[in-house]
Every structure is written in C-alpha cells, then in structure tokens.
C-alpha cells in the first residue's frame, strides 16, 4: 500500500472518529434529557428509577443482532455497554456492592454487567453485599451463585433465605486463573500458594502436577491472595487478570484452571421488579412437605407446562432438622401465563413459595 493510500485512510478514520464523537455526545445529551423528564414526572414521595435492566438487555441484544462485523458480537456489545454506562452516570451514578476486596472476579462481573462508570463498593463477605442492598446504601449487589466446575455457592443461597432481595439480572464470566508472583518472590523457593478455596479446587490437577508438595492456603478471595504475595518472598497466588494488574504481580503461569470452559455465574440483586423482555429467567425458593413423592410433586407442574428447568439445588431449611428447601431456576417470566399457572399449582402443594425474581438472560 502506497503512502498516499495510507494517508487517505487516515483522513477517513479521522472523519469517522469525529462523527462517532458527535453521535456519542448526542446520546449523552438524550440521557440527560431522559433524567430531566423522569424527575419532572415524579409524584411526591417517589424516587426516580434511572436504571432499567430490561431496557439495557434489549438494547444490547439489538446491537448484537444488527452487528455486521468485522468486530464480533460480544466485542461490539461491550463497547455499547461502556457508552450506556457513561450516559447513565450522567443521569445518576449507580452504586454497586460486590464481594471484595478490589480485584476479585465479582468486581470483574460487576464491571462486565454495569460498565466502568459505576461506583463499585467492595464488601468483605457475601452476606454484607445483601445487607448493603437491603439497607439502601447501594443500588445493586453482585454475588456469585454457581461455578461450572465446583457447583453452587452455598453462602449466596443461604443469604437468599435470610434477606428479601429481588434478582434483577445475571452475568456469566469466563474464569481464567493465573499463578502470580511479586517482585521479591524467589520462584524456586515457593512454599505456599494462596487463593480462594473454589479457585484452589478449580486448579487442583495443575497444582498436583506442578506444585505437589507446596502448601495450599485458602483465603477469603483471590484478590486477598494477590495482596498477601506482595509482601512475601516465598509465596504465590492464584488469581485473575484484574488482581494481577491491580497489585502489580507477574504471571508465572497462565490459564492454569483444569477445565477450559470454567465459568462462574453471578446474580444482580436489588429491590426493583424487572418487566418481561421476552427472553427471561425466573428464580424461586420452594419448601415442600417432608413426605414421599415431594420432589415429584414439585417437578410435575413444570413438566406438564413444558417449562425448561435450568438449575435445581437443595439447602437445609432453617425451620427444622432434616428439612430442605429447593432453589430452582427456569426459563420464562413470572408474568407469563404458563409460568403463573405453574406457580399457582406449586403454591397449593408447597409449605412456602418465594419468587426471588424474573430477569433478562445474560447477554454478555
């Protein structure tokens, strides 16, 4: 390609950049106008609702459906996600609590779902995320609920039994684990490896093969593991990219997870009910009478109405010894006629039934 052709392309790119800049600014001004209209229409005592999960999911899906490349659908949606995040911050910056400290996969999930323009608030425990949302100190919380390798996150399930929260969304995060060391680490003298218990389990085979005699120390989070390594010469940490960048660590080995499809699903918790989008999921908690055939009675209404169950978990009930509650996820919105019929039939047989929320399926 000649220099003249390159210069012509650079001029074209500059012109496109100016148009993109102008369009983004127009969109931001529209967001400010939306905020003004919402405030004007408020009745006395009402609080404005600026963030609409169903609206954002629909916008991102439309972007992916209309994308013609060469950028991939997810990459294009992520770009729009950040534009939407910045525009929403002009209306009202969201405060989002997550399982901290900074650098955890929970923070990465929060950024993936809400964009980087939110105010992210790290919490020391999953239960604290629930409490912050319940108290109104933050708008939303992000909590892990299941991993494709290790299964359900029981602390999250138990927190739903203790708090009245609404599930407003979900996000799936591809999990890559790296073995990280600090500037002072003597890599030939590593005697302990820090990480969260789930991460140690997800890298068990790799650790058995490469560090079979090194002590594995479970800590509260991967970010906490990364922070500890900064001040120790004989330790390493298993954590992700965000923790590595935040704490200035070096990757001694990359992508050491045992399964290449290792992913974690996170739930967005809040207080607002989400209207249907046409591509939704619903989560419920059901407590059945302790009798033969109880599980069969629980599943029959779903089968008869052709409802797709995506997850079912059991946890000990707080009401009595050897009694259990069922956490169930299924496709559809609780306002859908078929779903309403299922819930009505379950309510007739169950000791207790609680709809945790209906929400858009994960877009990204």
UniProtKB/TrEMBL annotation:
GO biological process, any: chorismate metabolic process
Pfam family for this entry, one: CM_2
Pathway note: Metabolic intermediate biosynthesis; prephenate biosynthesis; prephenate from chorismate: step 1/1; Amino-acid biosynthesis; L-phenylalanine biosynthesis; phenylpyruvate from prephenate: step 1/1
Domain ACT: 283-360
SUPFAM superfamilies, per database record: ACT-like (SSF55021), Chorismate mutase II (SSF48600), Periplasmic binding protein-like II (SSF53850)
Site (Essential for prephenate dehydratase activity): 264
Sequence ranges assigned to domain Chorismate mutase in this UniProt record: 1-95
Domain Prephenate dehydratase: 95-271
InterPro entries named in the record: ACT-like_dom_sf, ACT_dom, Chor_mutase/pphenate_deHydtase, Chorismate_II_sf, CM_dom_sf, CM_II_prokaryot, G/b/e-P-prot_chorismate_mutase, Preph_deHydtase
The entry's keywords: Amino-acid biosynthesis, Aromatic amino acid biosynthesis, Cytoplasm, Isomerase, Lyase, Multifunctional enzyme, Phenylalanine biosynthesis
Subcellular location: Cytoplasm
Role: Catalyzes the Claisen rearrangement of chorismate to prephenate and the decarboxylation/dehydration of prephenate to phenylpyruvate.
Annotated protein name in UniProt: Bifunctional chorismate mutase/prephenate dehydratase
Organism placement in taxonomy: Bacteria, Pseudomonadati, Pseudomonadota, Gammaproteobacteria, Pseudomonadales
């Amino acid at each position: 390609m000649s220099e003249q052709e390159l210069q012509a392309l650079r001029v074209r790119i500059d012109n496109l950049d100016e148009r993109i800049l102008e369009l983004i600014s127009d969109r931001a001004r529209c967001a400010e106008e939306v905020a003004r209209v919402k405030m004007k229409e408020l009745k006395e005592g009402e609080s404005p609702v600026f963030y609409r999960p169903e609206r954002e999911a629909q916008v991102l899906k439309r972007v992916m459906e209309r994308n013609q490349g060469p950028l991939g659908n997810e990459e294009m949606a992520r770009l729009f996600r950040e534009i939407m995040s910045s525009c929403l911050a002009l209306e009202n910056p969201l405060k989002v609590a997550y399982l901290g400290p900074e650098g955890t996969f929970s923070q990465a999930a929060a950024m993936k779902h809400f964009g980087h323009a939110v105010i992210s608030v790290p919490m020391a425990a999953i239960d604290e995320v629930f409490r912050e949302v319940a108290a109104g100190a933050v708008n939303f919380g992000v909590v892990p609920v299941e991993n494709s390798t290790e299964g359900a996150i029981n602390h999250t399930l138990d927190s739903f039994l203790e708090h009245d929260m609404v599930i407003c969304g979900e996000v799936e995060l591809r999990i890559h684990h790296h073995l990280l060391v600090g500037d002072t680490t003597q890599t030939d003298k590593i005697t302990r490896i820090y990480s969260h218990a789930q991460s140690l389990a997800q890298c068990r085979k790799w650790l058995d093969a490469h560090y079979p005699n090194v002590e594995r120390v479970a800590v509260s989070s991967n970010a906490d593991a990364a922070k500890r390594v900064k001040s120790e010469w004989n330790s390493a940490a298993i954590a992700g990219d965000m923790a590595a960048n935040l704490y200035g660590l070096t990757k001694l080995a990359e992508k050491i997870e045992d399964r290449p499809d290792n992913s974690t699903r996170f739930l967005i918790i809040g207080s607002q009910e989400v209207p249907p989008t046409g591509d939704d999921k619903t989560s419920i908690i059901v407590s059945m009478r302790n009798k033969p055939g109880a599980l069969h009675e629980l599943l029959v209404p779903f089968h008869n109405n052709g409802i797709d169950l995506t997850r079912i978990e059991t946890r000990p009930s707080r009401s009595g010894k050897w009694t259990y509650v069922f956490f169930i996820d299924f496709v559809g919105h609780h306002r859908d006629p078929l779903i309403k019929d299922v819930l009505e039939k379950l309510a007739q047989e169950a000791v207790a039934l609680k709809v945790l929320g209906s929400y858009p399926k994960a877009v990204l």
